[in-house]
Amino acid sequence: MQAAASSDAFSDGHVSTIAHLTGEKLRGHRFAWPPAEEQRATVVHIDGEAAASDASIERARTEIDLLRELRTRLTSDVVTGRVDVQPIAATLPELDPAEVVADVSAAEDDLDDEAAEFLEDVNA
Question: What is residue 8's DSSP assignment?
């Protein structure tokens, strides 16, 4: 169809601001179509590939949700004292608290950006 359109095969001599491709214009041309069985096989293949992509997207979304839930629970457990972080904290170097907050915020933003980019790439 692109070849026919680029060679003005559908042009009927009328010039307008909105071109119309009517059934009458289409019936005046013959187009090669693959055999029905090949068309069905193509559809089955595309459906299979789409299902695999959909499954990957859903797994990625589930993993992202689980990581966010884990982060929330871990933060809650540390804040409420259910997890004792003093032994770990004793082995860490001294850091500027403002710098840590900025680093954590930046890391969270980066994680959200990477997750969004991943989902965009998978959806494309």
Answer: T
Judge contact between 78 and 84, C-beta under 8 A.
Answer: no
Residue 57: which of 46, 69, 45, 65 has the closest Cα?
A: 65
* pLDDT tens per residue across all 124 residues of the chain: 777 677 666 666 666 666 677 777 777 777 778 999 999 999 999 999 999 999 999 999 999 999 999 999 999 998 998 988 888 888 888 877 788 788 888 888 888 888 888 888 777 6
Three-state DSSP at 94 gives coil
Cα–Cα dist 25/31, whole Å:
12
With beta carbons less than 8 A apart as the criterion, state whether 118 and 61 touch. Answer: no
Cα–Cα nearest to 68, from 7, 38, 112, 123: 112
What Å distances lie between residue 29 and 12, 14, 22, 33, 111, CA to CA? 13, 18, 12, 13, 53
- Distance set, CA 124 to CA 18, 50, 59 (Å): 30, 11, 16
What is the pTM (predicted TM-score) of this model?
0.45
Estimate to the nearest angstrom the gap between the alpha carbon of 20 and the chain centroid: 34
